[in-house]
Design goal:
The structure is a single chain. This protein has helices at 2-17, 29-36, 65-90. It is mostly helical. The two termini are 18 Å apart. It comes from Saccharothrix saharensis. One of its GO terms (cellular component) is plasma membrane. Residues 2-89 form the PDGLE domain.
């Protein structure tokens, strides 16, 4: 099981850190569809739109898309891993 999660983490980090640079962002697919169907007219800025990882970048620098992806993956894995550890410990099946 550890081998699976390690492989999952490595593949996720590679996709976020390397492949994300090849994504077309002008406009991205979701933006394009919302513009086609008039949904974008009703869009508002997200309250966290000025956050440090907003718009798939670090502090608004589009050259750091991969770094934003890696940070996002690491944070997600830490939160998910922490929740999993807590639930496992609470159920009494954890080893420590």
């Amino acid at each position: 099981m550890k081998r699976f999660f390690t492989g999952f983490a490595v593949v996720s980090l590679l996709l976020a850190g390397v492949v994300s640079y090849f994504a077309d962002s002008d406009p991205d697919g979701l933006d394009h569809v919302t513009e086609q169907h008039g949904i974008a007219e009703h869009a508002r800025d997200h309250p966290l739109g000025g956050g440090p990882l907003a718009d798939y970048a670090v502090a608004g620098d589009d050259r750091l898309t991969g770094l934003a992806g890696v940070v996002g993956v690491v944070l997600t894995l830490l939160v998910a891993g922490g929740l999993f550890w807590l639930l496992r410990k609470r159920s009494g099946t954890g080893s420590g």
